[in-house]
Amino acid sequence: MRFTRVQAPGVVSRVTARARRGPSWDHADMDHIAFPLEPGREFVELNQLLKLVGIVDSGGAGKALVASGVVRVDGSIETRKTAKIRAGQQVRIGTVEIDVTA
Known about the structure:
- This protein is α+β, with helices and mostly antiparallel strands and 102 residues long.
- It has a single domain, classed as Structural Genomics Hypothetical 15.5 Kd Protein In mrcA-pckA Intergenic Region, Chain A, CATH 3.10.290.10.
- The chain contains 3 helices and 9 strands; from the N terminus they run E-E-H-E-E-H-H-E-E-E-E-E.
- The strands form 3 sheets. Strands 3-9-8-5-6 form a 5-stranded mixed sheet, with helices on one face. Strands 1-2 form a two-stranded antiparallel sheet. Strands 4-7 form a two-stranded antiparallel sheet.
- The longest helix is centred in the middle third of the chain and has 9 residues, at 59-67.
- It starts with a strand and ends with a strand.
- The relative contact order is 0.27.
- The model is unreliable at 1-25 (pLDDT under 50).
């Protein structure tokens, strides 16, 4: 798998070159990450989630990645940098899929 630079300036992500060509329907190529919320927490902000799972190096880089329009939450493009991601939601960036659990 090759990793490439995302269009947002200064942000390096684990998005493969295939992400630029559009969605991939071959789920065998999908990288799955399970992210359990800390006990007592109802949500995690989207930019912080990207940082915590290692997609980006900082919350600021996460904000830039979200603003670039390549992040999807439950199948819809999400541009709110601090969107509240709750248990049961799914975040997708190229071929990386993050499942948030309680």
